[in-house]
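Retro notes
What went well: the complex prediction finally ran end to end.
Inputs used:
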Amino acid sequence: MDVVLMRNSSPNNQVAKNVDALSTISGTLRSESSIIDPVILVQGDVSSFAFCNYCYIAAFGRYYYINNIVSVRNNLFEIHAHVDVLMTYQTGIKNNSALVRRQQNDWNLLINDGSIRTYANAYSIPYAFPNGFNGHSLVLCVAGPQTIT
Amino acid sequence: MTYQVDIHTASNNFSVPVVVDDYLYNHASLDVVSGSINPDTFYSEIFPSLAHYFPDFCTYLDDVLYQYGSSEFNSLMALINAKKADIAQTGSETITNTAAIVSPVYVSKPSDYPIGTNVTRSCNISLGVGSVLSSQFSFPGYSFSYTVSMSTNQSDNLYGRYGILLNCVLCPSNFIANGVVNFSSLTTAYRYKRLSIAIDYYKTSGNISYSVRTYDDGAYTTSIINNYKTWNNIILTVPSDTTDPYIDVVGDTSTTGGGDGTGDFTGDTISESSIPTVTALNSGFITAYAPTVGDLNALATYMWTSDFETNLKKLFGDSPMSTIIGLGAVPVTPNVGASQHVILGNVDTEISMPIITNQYVKFDCGSIQISPKYGAFLDYEPYTSIDLYLPYIGMVQLSTNDVMGKSLSVKYIIDVISGACVAEVLCGGSVYYTFEGCCLSQFPISQDDYSNVFHAAVQAATSLAGGIAGAVAGGLTGNVAGAVNSAVQGIGGAAQAAMNAHPVVNRSGGLAGAGGMLTVQKPFIVMSTPKMVASNAQNAFIGYPIFATYRLSDLSGYTEVENINISGLYATQAEQDEIKMLLKNGVIL
């Protein structure tokens, strides 16, 4: 099978990754190897794939992280890979709807999910009303009406 | 949940199953696109709804529209045309209506056109077995067509109507005339499958209205398509759930319920109080003056002369001070009339003072706007607290939820006789709080208890109606104070209410009145609010909370999923589990 060796410069949790295809080599799937975590035997100069961290196997229709490259014998290497489900199924994933918990660009900060932290020294801010009592008036209260009978 | 929806038309009554759930509610008013729609936006805007309800159909549409968006559309058509020869060689139906497939579809939203205007844009994609895309279609021998059209010709009372009409038909190419599937011209039998896809829906005030077009789903049957029906303005009312899911649990008394609130969160405006119209001053048993310091000095000098004292003692026995109910200071200017001689008992002191005409004074402290600092949950309880200082009352705590984002006003009503004051706190123009206190600072003038004298005098006023005649007769021949006391029995509720307010507030607030005079005379608030840690680009690393449903293709950047029901992927179970796990942990879209 053909293995397109790539270099991935994106974080692993990025769905659509920026990859550079470097070369295509032929390999064989080691016996009892899975499509999820394939181990592929390739022959060639180690310099041709030693600096690759990503690959695409058209026969499987999947993108893979290269987890390890193990030398079996001279010029024969095992590429241990793990499927990148995000890159492989990115179109299908994006077609789905989901209940989103946190987001980079759309948010509602009235929701408290513990992701926003505060300092211990809180603000204490006074605000005065515009009007207050100003001065006092004397009040004399006496019994009876203001007429003399 | 699938509901049997009763549909009543002029000629028929029948029912159809309709799937209604939150998704449909949320998408019933489908804001299609701003501007125009092309195959790409069709895919992103309309397809989710269709995929939800017609997954089988959309499995095929998905493959075409996703893989061949608008930029690839013409290339796709070119490929199809190039493969016509192959189609012919396999003996399949040929595609003849090439004119209909050369351009992408552009459908404007209905709001671009006046009600009553027919707007129809259509595009047909015709594919056949043998083309490079044959793997995407599993209907050998038949071509595929869909029509997207949109209409605003329904001039009924539609509110914000956005409709999408999508016809999908698997048919021979001569089914199509002028770019539109022509049903009416059919006179021969055709094989077809799942033809019943045409829905135009919108939402109006709680109900979901449908305009459904469908025709029978003939799964590889042979018949004439003549039962095409048009149902308009079907009103779907979602029935309440009558199934108790707990019924099978022995001894369980749980029931379903909840969610049946009114959803109405509007309330009433509580207006501020007006000044009472019945006052102790109206009784005639009490007279209040607003003297100056000079007036008081003159009165004191006069009162302690031997002549005055002699005269008063004749009338009151022990002390001339018995005629003075109280002397104090209030922080407002009373409403006064013309100056009059002060009459003590029946003695004219010939000292003039302005007479107070209204027992109550209203004082407006103005308002301040309580604005959120962050526009976040930190602006509310329990994170932000708001304390309000009210002169002559003290510090009180307000509910942040009550006042945040509103104008906060404080208005006092002050009884200048008793010193009782009530502060009404208005939030957004409505009274939310009332606090009472005392703002009278009493000046001692004798050893008599101020409250007792005042209490007796006002009680005399309240009972005026019951015993005024006898009281006056007895008073004039003997002790006036005794006459006042004997007149107590009954003037009525309003004066009594004014009396009730006095001892409660004056007793408890007497000291507060004197103390309040020495402190800040202007209300203020103290807002305590957290200081937020605003990390640079935090949203790019862990996002901010949203908790809402999105189609993931509508988002970009860091995204954490609370839950997702993955569908439409041909991944292994392990891969789907990993996808779900990764989405929950956060991915960058």
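What we learned: The mean pLDDT of chain A is 89.
What to try next: split runs per interface for comparison.
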